[in-house]
Each structure stands twice: as C-alpha cells, then as structure tokens.
Amino acid sequence: MASKQNKTTLFVDEKLLALEKDGLYRSLKTVSVSGPLATVNGRKAIHLCSNDYLGLSQDKRVVQAAVRTLRQVSQCSSRLIAGNDPFITKLEDMLARHRRTESALVYPTGYAANLGAVTALADKNTTIFSDELNHASIIDACKLSGARIEVFAHNDTAHLENLVSKAAGRKIAITEGIFSMDGDSADIVKICRIAEKYDALTIVDDAHGDFIFGPKFAGVPAKFGAKVDVHISSMSKGLGCFGGYVATSAKIRELLVNTSRQFIYTSALPDYLCAAAVAAVPLAKRGNLQKRLFENIRQFSSQLKKHGFTLGNSSSQIMPVMVGDEKKAVTFSEELLKNGVFAQAVRYPTVKRGSARLRVSLTAMHEKMHIDAATAAFEKAGRKTGII
Ligand code: PMP
C-alpha cells in the first residue's frame, strides 16, 4: 500500500514539475465580476476575458426571471425520469425558432451537448472530419464516439475535400462557427458544399457566434446562408446564461432523446436557469447590444494594431493577442493585471505549442474609457515584457 502511494505521489509530482518547467502550470484565481470590471485576487481590473459578450448575465430582467422561478434548487432528476420542466420545453421551442430548425434539445452544458450529439450520430462505421482548431469538447466527443477521425488543416477546405473524397461509409464534417481561441470564422459555405457533394452530415459548434452574428443574430451559418444539419451551442456566452443545446431536425432530436448518454444519464438543467434563458433570448435578438459590441471591437483592435500587436485573423469579439512563448505570455498577463487589466494567457494544450497568446474578449458592457485604459495598459505591459 505504502509503495503504491509513493508511486502515485511521484507520478503527480513529476507531472506538475514538467508543467512548471514548460510554462504550462495553471492556477486558479479568485474572481468576482461587476459589470465590465472584475476583482482578481483582490485587485480591481477591466475584465477582458468574459464570454458574457452582451452582458446579459448581469441584466436585471434576466436575473429577475431566474429569481421569480426559483422554488427548487434542482429538479434532482434526469429529464426522462422526472426532470422535464415546462420551462425547458418553452426554451427549446424558442431556440429552435432562433436557429431556424425543426427542434432543439437542451443539455446541462455546451460540453455535454457536443459529447451527446456526436456520440449519438457517429460510430465505428463513421468517419468524422474535424478542423484542427476545434474545441476540446469536440475533440473529446469525436474520440468518445469510436469513429475514425480525420483532422483537416484549419479552415482548409481543399484539404477537407481531399480527405472526404477518399472516405467510404458514413461521414460527418464538424467545425466551430467562430473559433474560440482565434476568433476567426469557419468557411461554412464551402464546408457545407463539400458535405453535400460527398453525402456527409454537417455539425457546427457555434458557441461563440450564437446571438452575435447573422440575421436576427441566429449565428454563423445564418450569416452566410449555409444550411447545416446540426447546430450546437452554449448558453453561457452570447446569451449570458447557462447550459448547452442542439438545434436540429425533429428526427435527430428523437435519436438524441433515445440514445444520447449525456442527455439520458444526467440531471436536467434547473428550471430557473431555463427561465433566465427564456428572458434573455428576446433581449439578445434586439440588436442594440451587438451594435455596441461591434463598435468596441473596432476601437480595441485598431488601437492595439497601432501599438504594434499581432491579432491573428480575428473577425469577432475574440481577439488573440499573439505572444508565442508560454512563459512570456504568463508574464505579460501578470504585468497587465498590475496595470489594471484582466486578460488570461492561453497556452498548450488549448492552443498549439509556441502559439501562446492572451485571449481578449470584448463585451457590450465596455465603454470607451475602458477600451482606452485597457489599450494603454497593453502598450505599457507590452513594452516592459518585450512583446512590442
Ligand atoms: N464549444 C466551444 C467552442 C466552447 O468554447 C465551449 C466553452 N468554452 C464549449 C463548447 C463548452 O460550453 P459550456 O461552457 O457551456 O460547457
């Protein structure tokens, strides 16, 4: 027993040491949020890493909707047993209309929605074609499904077509709508065209494009007029709420209800969170918040570029401020916090080795004074750490 414990202790110590040596050690910060500001480990700062892109998580109407509904902290049951609350059904109807699909199915998180949908639709007789920069939850979903996985170069539709054209059996192409660490948009029209030509199903995880882009803010496929078979999203980003969902045909929804383990064997999303989302959807579709967000994106990116920072190919509220070296990215982030800005360093395995960056995300809550103060702090910290 004692020697087993020693081996485990050694394993843990070695793993942690290796992470530290490579500049990949992660530690939790204590963060409390107030509007576009956050107190981070006791220090007040402009919050530049929230996914609450429209600020709806703090909107009184959304919060009140949750409070009004709150009688029970949890339904304490899965949906097929006793957890199918009327608010979930109402929310699903709204989400289906929003994404222009026949139906929608709510999951406890966006992570679970990816796992649930992909594992229900793919098996060992399926080949999944997955963009190399897809989110960890898509990667995990593909692995868990047991399907053959072919990774295509980021947004490289020629590479995708080359791989798809050689494959036999059932096929699925999967991509993000807006890439979560780069902020660029998928070449969704071409992906759908290739999928149609070779009889492949299309799945888009639009967690970061949902409620931000497209007509009526219906997301990236709607923006480009692309018809995808399965839309996956998280409600804890543009919508400012919590949970995940899949919007798709009525038949695929039935399959998910009947076979998706991440739907069947887990507790339902609590009703007050569904009520909050029901209140948030019409607020997210009015467009005034996106207008402010896009103005902030314009201001922030032009100021940072003027200072000489490299922002990758972002075309959205997610801006990677490229650093490269992992340790340098952490130092830069720490220096920024000292100057009143909270922007996290993102490193391997979230992004490729040597492509560490600060992942800045802007929101509609930021005002001009926050953008000006933040970009001034970036310049100061960037010069001190040798990034510009
Ligand atoms: N997909 C993408 C692209 C994401 O960025 C995230 C969260 N960062 C998820 C899915 C998971 O969503 P959730 O936080 O609701 O589990």
UniProtKB/TrEMBL annotation:
Protein name (record): 8-amino-7-oxononanoate synthase
Matching PANTHER family: 8-AMINO-7-OXONONANOATE SYNTHASE, CLASS II AMINOTRANSFERASE/8-AMINO-7-OXONONANOATE SYNTHASE
A Pfam family assignment: Aminotran_1_2
Protein's UniProt keywords contain S-adenosyl-L-methionine: no
Protein family: Belongs to the class-II pyridoxal-phosphate-dependent aminotransferase family. BioF subfamily.
MF (Gene Ontology): 8-amino-7-oxononanoate synthase activity; pyridoxal phosphate binding
EC number assigned by the record: 2.3.1.47
Highest taxon, organism lineage: Archaea
Cofactor(s) of this protein: pyridoxal 5'-phosphate
Keyword entries, A-Z: Acyltransferase, Pyridoxal phosphate, Transferase
Occurrences of domain Aminotransferase class I/classII large (ranges): 44-375
Entry-linked InterPro entries: Aminotransferase_I/II_large, AON_synthase_class-II, PyrdxlP-dep_Trfase, PyrdxlP-dep_Trfase_major, PyrdxlP-dep_Trfase_small
